[in-house]
Design goal:
The chain has two domains: about 55 residues, Arc Repressor Mutant, subunit A, CATH 1.10.10; about 140 residues, Tetracycline Repressor, domain 2. Helices cover about 75% and strands about 0% of the residues. Helix 6 packs across helix 7. The relative contact order is 0.09. The model has no long low-confidence stretch (mean pLDDT about 80).
Length: about 210
Amino acid sequence: MVRPAASEGYAKSLVTRARILDAARLEAGERGFHKASVARIAARADTAIGSVHYHFGSRTQLLRELMRTLMADLTARLAAARSDPASDFFTRLRAEQLAYVDYIRANPHHVRLADEIKFHEPDLYREGMDDWVTLLAAEIRAGVAERSLRPMDDTEILAQAHFLLGARHYLESMLGGDDGVEGAAVVDAYIGLVRDGLGRRRDPERRA
């Protein structure tokens, strides 16, 4: 049985840890992943530098945990967007990409931090990309099973999952400026490309 005092101390520790992660997000968002200072993170979190090391061990581990937290948050948001079981693959994908557009517009630093991770923490970047590919492959398999998509073997499913992941860079580049590009229009162009490539092909004899 956990004593009340011990339970209260554990709760405070969790709050401090969350506060440090939030401070790290702000610091990295403003200055970049590798210019983020432990001293400034501690000051933002209103805690001691020693507390940062106690909870995360090192600056590198803190920033790695930050990226995992950001990716987990994004994954949860996209999963919620595609949660309607009555919709088909393309409807779910459109909802997911609109949620992604909203996310990157609300969190422009996320794209920059991901680019930094790619060059400075390649193992962590590959880990995140592998997780995305696994999720996208599962979505494609569900689309094939419900007959929204044409039949594909595992090799093609994996290749198409990589394509869908790479195509998100198209969304990021199209929406990265302040030129008034409408998010829904960009997503619909993206969905049209995917539909033509993955949708079930009609029998030529029935095209009339």
